[in-house]
Design brief:
This protein has helices at residues 6-55, 61-71, 78-91, 136-176, 191-236, 241-267, 281-291, 312-329, 357-360, 366-369, 377-388, 409-413; strands at residues 73-75, 93-100, 103-110, 113-120, 123-129, 277-280, 299-302, 307-310, 335-339, 344-349, 390-397, 400-407. With 414 residues, it is an alpha+beta fold. It has a five-stranded antiparallel beta sheet with strand order 1-5-4-3-2, with helices on both faces. The longest helix is centred in the N-terminal third of the chain and has 50 residues, at 6-55.
Length: 414
């Protein structure tokens, strides 16, 4: 019951309620039929006893008329009796038969009408049952139909009231999938309307923050490029070639870092779509090493070349960050990059991670901040891999921290 949706719960609740109501009325119908049979038996038993006892006293016409009125019966004329006898022979059904030494009483049913035949010596009376109709059953059925219709109307009203929640859910999902222009509207000022307004206010606030952040990033990168360009121009003027080469490479790398920041900003947005292409693993590894500002002699590569479909720029960036992470934090300042059946492993000597991997894939991880980084390395790697349909794994064995890039089957086939 905890995971069932509100709509499904309402469906079940109203279905069960209507089923119980229908079952109750079916039981009522069965009970009413039995009640009517018992009442009929008692009535005709009373008529039998009353007529036979009164006829024994030889009542006159006036007394018989009072008796008819009292018991709600009507005597038939000789012509009616003649016609009725033929119908009794062909279609009549006896529903009551009783009497004593004083005489006999029988009750017949013909086409839904009840006829009473009283036989006592010189009296042979054929009476029609004129008992007034009671409408208890019809009233009960009317009330039942009314209640069922009322429940159905309430059911439809509740579903109509909940329909805006479905619309609200779809709009929130659209926003979550990256449609930043989504606006949530609702006409009424009820609880759903207040929730919709709150979500709309939150979306507007998020859009404002996102716009401010993008503007800040663009301005920051623009402002950084100017001193970097000036620094490179000054470096080009140096006569010492070795110093000049180092400085130029440093300024080039700074420029590349700014470009990487722009790409990272783009990959972490909901609307990012990777540029998937058919490449080889060697191409990805070579590109990641070109992006790395470190001595390549400290990187041991042991891979089996294979083809894959990915965004080469961002996959290389993820591998580069893992290599950089291993060199920066490893004891030997060297890493091993190898491939296995899973995909890629980057191993480096060092102490086992103090916290679970999920702690380090959060932005501005405290463990990395206390070191020389900003706590964004593994967060960037994890964000990129998620976008490309891979996942980041970790294990520790034989004194080495091993980070793994593996296909995320849940994303690819789920």
């Amino acid at each position: 019951m905890k995971n069932i949706s509100v709509t499904a719960f309402i469906h079940i609740l109203f279905s069960v309620t209507i089923a119980i109501l229908i079952a109750t009325f079916l039981l009522f119908i069965s009970w009413d039929k039995d009640r009517q049979k018992i009442e009929e038996f008692k009535r005709y038993q009373l008529i039998s006893i009353t007529f036979l006892s009164n006829l024994r006293l030889g009542p006159d016409r006036e007394e018989l008329k009072k008796l008819y009125d009292k018991l709600h019966v009507r005597p038939l004329t000789p012509a009616e009796v003649k016609v009725l006898r033929n119908e009794i022979r062909t279609n009549g059904q006896t529903i009551f038969s009783g009497g004593s030494n004083a005489g006999r009483v029988r009750v017949f049913v013909i086409n839904g009408e009840h006829y009473i035949y009283v036989q006592r010596m010189s009296y042979n009376l054929m009476l029609k049952d004129d008992r007034p109709e009671n409408y208890y059953f019809e009233i009960a059925m009317g009330v039942g139909v009314f209640l069922i219709l009322l429940l159905l109307l309430l059911y439809l009203a509740v579903l109509k009231k909940l329909y805006p929640l479905k619309k609200l859910h779809k709009e929130i999902q659209r926003f979550a999938q990256g449609d930043m222009n989504t606006r949530i509207t609702y006409e009424h000022d009820d609880e759903i309307g207040k929730i919709a307004k709150s979500f709309d206010d939150a979306i507007c606030h998020i859009n404002e923050l996102s716009t401010s952040k993008n503007l800040f990033m663009r301005n920051m990168m623009h402002e950084l490029k100017t001193p970097i360009t000036k620094g490179r121009i000054v470096a080009e003027m140096l006569e010492d070639e070795s110093t000049k080469k180092v400085l130029v490479r440093a300024f080039e790398r700074m420029n590349e870092l700014i470009s990487e920041l722009a790409e990272i900003e783009r990959v972490t947005t909901q609307s990012f779509e990777p540029n998937m292409e058919y490449v080889t693993l060697e191409e990805v590894i070579d590109k990641s090493q070109d992006m790395l500002m470190a001595d390549k002699s400290c990187i041991t590569v042991d891979i089996k070349n294979k083809a894959l479909t990915t965004d080469i720029k961002f996959m290389a960036l993820a591998i580069k960050n893992l290599l950089d992470n291993g060199i920066k934090y490893g004891k030997g300042k060297c890493v091993v990059l190898r491939s296995n059946d899973g995909f890629i492993e980057i191993a480096s000597e060092g102490n086992k991670l103090e916290y679970p991997l999920s702690y380090y894939t959060e932005p501005f991880s405290q463990a990395e901040k206390r070191s020389s980084g900003f706590g964004l390395g593994l967060y960037i790697v994890n964000s990129i891999l998620e976008k490309l349909g891979y996942k980041l794994g970790y294990r520790y064995e034989e004194g080495k921290n091993i980070f793994m890039i593996e296909p995320d089957m849940r994303r690819r086939f789920g």
